[in-house]
Each structure stands twice: as structure tokens, then as C-alpha cells.
Amino acid sequence: DDGGGGNGGGGEPGGAVGEGVASNEVSMANIQFDPSEITVDAGETITFVNDEPVPHDVHKTSGPGDDFASGDPGGMQEGDTFELTLDEPGTYEYVCQVHAPGMSGTITVR
Q1: CA gap 69, 75 in Å, rounded
Q2: Distance CA 35, CA 47 (A)
Q3: Which mean pLDDT values do the consecutive 10-residue runs of the chain (110 residues) have?
Q4: Burial letters for 31-50: b for 16+ Cβ neighbours within 10 Å, e otherwise?
Q5: How far apart are CA 48 and CA 64, in angstroms?
Q6: Cis bond leading into 55, ω under 30°?
Q7: Distance in angstroms (rounded) separating the CA atoms of residues 3 and 59
Q8: CA of 1: how far to CAs of 4, 5, 10, in Å?
Q9: Are 99 and 88 in contact (CB under 8 A)?
């Protein structure tokens, strides 16, 4: 045995509530965000991952504070990630500009 192990971790601090999502990861697949609604605590990081060969992006459309964007419209290729940390409680709405209005999501920060 190399004594490696790994994973460990165990429970989730603060207790995740939702549909079995183990992390604050939002997948982009089938031309939609999955999950399309996520709730996080202020200061937690959300990671968007493009899981398909179709280019996507993440652009804020409403909510408190400054705008956020992953970059140019359609700038995220398959496998690309975008990390977002929001510190201000509230409801944030976002879209993929290439596939809006159908590809949209909501982040609730508590």
C-alpha cells in the first residue's frame, strides 16, 4: 500500500441543500446550465464547466454589485472552467449570450 488514500473529505460544512449536488459546480451541457438554480453562502466559489463541444459563456443579466462575465460570448470551449465568488447576498441571474434566452440560470447568495 502506498498510503495514498485521497478523497477523504467526508461531510459538507454548512450542509448542502438541494438535489444531491455535492459541490458548487454548474455544468454546461445540452445547451443548458445544470443545475439552472443554485444557492450558496456569501464568499463560496461556484465553478462553471463547459461539458460539451458547443462554445458557451456566462454573463450576468441582473443582481446586486458589479457585472460578471466569463469572457467573450462563446469563449468557453469544451473542458473550460469559470470560477465565480459572490460576496453580496441576493439573487443573480445570468445567461449564455450565445444561447440566450433559453440558456439561463439563477444564483441565490445567502
Answers
A1: 10
A2: 12
A3: 48 42 85 98 97 98 97 98 97 98 97
A4: ebbeeeebbbeeebebebbb
A5: 20
A6: no
A7: 44
A8: 8, 9, 22
A9: no
Calculate ∠ Cα 80-40-81, nearest 5°: 5
Q: Quick check: 46 and 84 in contact, CB under 8 A?
A: yes
Peptide bond into 35 cis (omega under 30): yes
Per the DSSP assignment, residues forming a β-bridge with 85 are 45
**pLDDT, position 3:** 52
Three-state SS letters, 70-88? CCCCCCECCCCEEEEECCC
Residue showing cell 439552472? 36
End-to-end CA distance of the chain: 44
